[in-house]
Amino acid sequence: MAALTRESLKKLRDSLKKDFNRINSAGKTKVVIGMGTCGLAAGAKETEEAFLEALAKEQRKDVVVSGTGCMGLCFAEPTVEVIVPGMPSVVYGNVDREMAERIVRKHIQGKILVNDHIYDKPSVDIIEELEGN
Amino acid sequence: MSLVELKINGEVVKVEKGTTILNAAKEINVNIPTLCHHADLEPWAACGMCIVKLENSSKTVRACATPVEEGMSIITHDPELHGVRKTVLELILSTHPNECLTCGRNQHCELQTIACEFGVREQPYEKRLRDLPIDKSTPSIVLEPEKCISCGRCVLVCQGLQNVWALEFLFRGENTRIAPAGDDVLNDSPCIKCGQCSAHCPVGAIYEKDETRKLLDAIQDKNLHVTVQVAPSVRVAIGEAFGLEPGTVVTGKLYAALRRLGIDAVFDTNFGADLTIMEEGTEFVQRLTEGAGVLPQITSCCPAWTDYMEKYYPDMIPNFSTAKSPMMMQGAMTKTYYAEKMGFEARQIYSAAIMPCTAKKYEITRDENMYSSGVQDVDVVLTTRELARLIKSSGIDFLNLPDEPADSPIGAYSGAGTIFGNTGGVMEAALRTAYNLVTGTELKDVEIHQVRGLDGIKEGVIDIDGTKVKVAVAHGMANVGAVLDKVRMAAEKGEDPPYHFIEVMACRGGCIAGGGQPYFTTDEVRQKRMEGIYKDDKMSEVRCSYQNPEIQILYKDFLGSPMSSKSHKLLHTTYTPRPLHRL
Amino acid sequence: MNPEKFILVCNGAECRNPGAEEIYNNLRHECSIHNADDVQVIRTGCLGFCAHGPVVKTLPDETLYAGVTPEDAAEIVENHIINGKKVERLLYNKNESKQNVKVDNADFYQKQFRIVLRNCGIIDPENIEEYIARDGYAALEKVVFDMNPDDIIAELKSAGLRGRGGAGFPTWMKWNFTKQVESDEKFVVCNADEGDPGAYMDRGTLEGDPHSILEAMTIAGYCIGAKKGYIYIRAEYPLAIERLQKGMEDSRALGLLGDNILGSDFSFDIEIRLGAGAFVCGEETALIASIEGERGMPKPRPPFPSVKGVWGKPTLINNVETWANIPVIITRGGEWFSKIGTEDSRGTKVFALTGKIRNSGLVEVPMGTTLREIVYDIGGGIPGDKAFKAVQTGGPSGGVIPAEYLDTPIDYIHLKELGSIMGSGGMIIMDEDDCMVDVAKFYLGFSVDESCGKCSPCRIGGRTLYNILEKITTGNGELEDIEKLKTIGKAMQTASLCGLGQTAPNPILSTLKYFEDEYLAHIKNHRCPSKKCKELISFHILADKCVGCTICAKNCPVNVIDGAVREVHTIDQSGCIKCGKCFEVCKFNAVFIK
Asked: Which CATH number fits domain C5-108: 3.20.20.70, 3.40.30.10, 3.20.20.30, 3.40.50.720?
């Protein structure tokens, strides 16, 4: 992409806002894995592999698996946020290989939440949930 | 210059903007205690002794490094500050050996003085010494890191003032110590033995090698005829050891004291200086008028400088004057000309030299040229400090000695010889003679003020019979680089050299502030010693080297003429490129 | 049918709030008798608010109920889930959360308020588009085209942001000083040398949202007139370094960094400089020396870096967290920011909550949040329900705050009054098993290791203090030692050259202030009340509890436990190394520490 100008930056942002919207996710199913040092130390790489394998098995090529920084729930790493259109997005903690497979089966495919591993999001999202002036 | 008004201990003070609190306090005669501070250097602000309070605030600042601000109100001394300063002192003492009685700085130590003033009577904190080895690798200087208080002065001097970078802080925290980079011994480092580190060290962590015993042994040896030469700078500084003002000329007493020590013949390095001028001046005129060598010519009498040049500027060896230093010429003449006259063999003569310089201890065995008489030309070098101690311990009442003359035939000197002690002195002396060699007449005004003074680099133009001779004088090793880089650049571009003649002295102020001079040398002291030298010049019977009658006899009877083959053999030397591979 | 409503029942692993299982079962029962098949009831991990538990949350409407009893299940299902009417009396009092965050029309209950960490855990830090989508580079755009340097200063002034590196100096002032100095060259520096043990706020920010720092530094360059910035980051953060480098590459490609930013005539670029393992290089003058390739040793100030910094030029240095606040202040305005926090300390602070705490991690709270809220509502309290003893803030430069001050609001002025400091944000929770003398010794040991060695008070005083503490913790302390600690501590505070030495005695002076009895126990009674200091404790086996299972003997690394199967075991004191393994493995509580 070429260097941006003020106008092209504004245009880019507006088009991206539609795609990258945490609450609505623009209709895409997303699995966002915490890949800060805390997550990686707890095994986030393996968690990522597990998701990719499980999703491939279910032939869900439409699900986006990506990484993110530290969400602050360091005590519960590896953490994974699961966004399925039509369901509230939740954050799971202590997601090992087995949990990953369970999430794919029950939450992504089965549209129900998985017991015992949900953690609350630590804060309101000031970008999407709080307008400034 | 704008003024700043502030209060110190309730008293109003007005000083120039940029003045530190420390100096502002001095103006009203308040002496804030310091330890790592030195007037020659930028404030290092390490020791913590100079902390002062800002009134109505809990803040303390370091007086040595904090510039005054309008409306500041400072408290320099109160019971709380006294308590903190004393604790800091006690902490420093807890890592310092209790060896005052056997230490080279006994009675002249800044830590000793301040501990005494603070009435330290006990050491409440555990003693922690590190058992570090002593470095005696160079001929001149000893490092005793156990006594180091990490004031940083030696590092700042060696890196900043001298640009030699032989000393650095190694390791961190409580393991910090000062040594050459890579923990080399000093002799394997860039060290040029100038001794400025020892001159600035507040304690006994760096000091000159004491070789007094060697001289005493020689005097005791009935088979040796002991001679001595005294450098110009010694006569304006040694008086300080006996309570005289810096710059007091005590030449006559110096000769008298040396005789009373049992020395057989007392000569003067100033004679050697006159001899150096005859040789070097002739060499210069030959290069200038006959193209007998490259220009600019650079003086070579400073051994720290020749060491530096061989290591860092070996490409400029052809520019170096081949003349030896006055001390080495004097030594050579002592063991040949004088020996012949007196019917001695060279090996029967012991030649000692009293110098303001620590590098001179290294010079005497530099290479085989220093043995031109067949044996070692100069046998031992004692610094001014060593001689002062020797005089005291021999019960000689220096201040009440009569003035005596030096011995012939190599003791008399001209004013040009004595000004070798000052920066610019060698240049001035050389020009006085060069003028005569070219024109056959005497310079109308022998005092060449363009090359005098404490500016790090001085430039001047002297008219010698229509030729504009361009000269440069650099002192303090860090200033040399700028001058020589100019010369190198001109050579690279194929231009004319920017100077014809360059004088270099490693120590700021010249030899009068050399590494072996009495302690506590600041610019104020340098100024006074320099003025003493110029007074000695003014008082001299003759002001130019070629007018020295003993010099004239020497050439007539012994050497022939300057740059003759005999002169070459005895009074000239060669240089070896020894580029420093290490960074 | 896929559920559309969800009821979350907090069931944290070590929850002290009983009844979660019953509440869960009751809710399920209620749902089934009302035929609410579009509702799923789930157990979760810890949802926080432990002091107000049991906690129940509903999604997607994000309602939080506190102090729920099993009997409330019927009301929740009938009124709220079926009929859409919230059960008012059970609602968690949001206003309590929002007392420090006066943002209109905001309907949230969480105690944390993430400004610095706004994108962390949400965006992919290696994807610049996700940053842009969430208002990324909107601040830079506004600054370059719609604002002049004075406007930026005014915005910062109205925001009231204070430096987050620990000193709390008003940010607008520092920017203004550097802006006002006339110079041909100026620099912007980000201090990412985060060295406090246990602190990783800056790491989290840089790994999770590197662009926020790049954007902020560029804005600063525009404001003060600099063309070059340095990020001085410790080499121990390789992931953050990688992400910063990727970020810079991507920004440069899009014209958001480098020459002619966004097509304007403003150019600014950034270079990364790595630290080499010296905590002291977090001090700004030592940091500058390190950037210049010199030994990392502090220099006296004045002159301050804003006048004479890197290469002798005016330099603006700020901490990572300070930088991360800048883009939001520009896009939302200083006034919006100033409504968060307290009068003395505006905005939020990120803390690395670690130690004896259930929910450890990076938390960001509005200034003025109390310690109790952080420890119990966010942190989930102390594991094993042990007694809270103290919280240590500010790392090796800070102090401890005991339980009686748990209701202190956290801001610069209150922490200072208590003898601690905000510092960069380390917050370590300690319980009854932590020995305060040992804590002081740990921090001092760190400062002694990291001392640069330039000034005498720190270089010598630090080690002298440490050796005295060592004496005390090994049972060789004397009463005069306490006076010596105070005298040397005072000298270091007054006469050290930089903050490292000036604050190194703080942990000692603070623990002495609040826990002098522990010091005296060590000295007078040769006892460590917390049973931590090895020389002062010994391990014994209680005859009436030991069943002879031999597990302790099998696990003893030095084989000093004797005893036959099914017979009482004994520990040979002369060989015991006090490792604590036997205590750890015994299932019968038969090992006793004296």
From this structure: 3.40.30.10
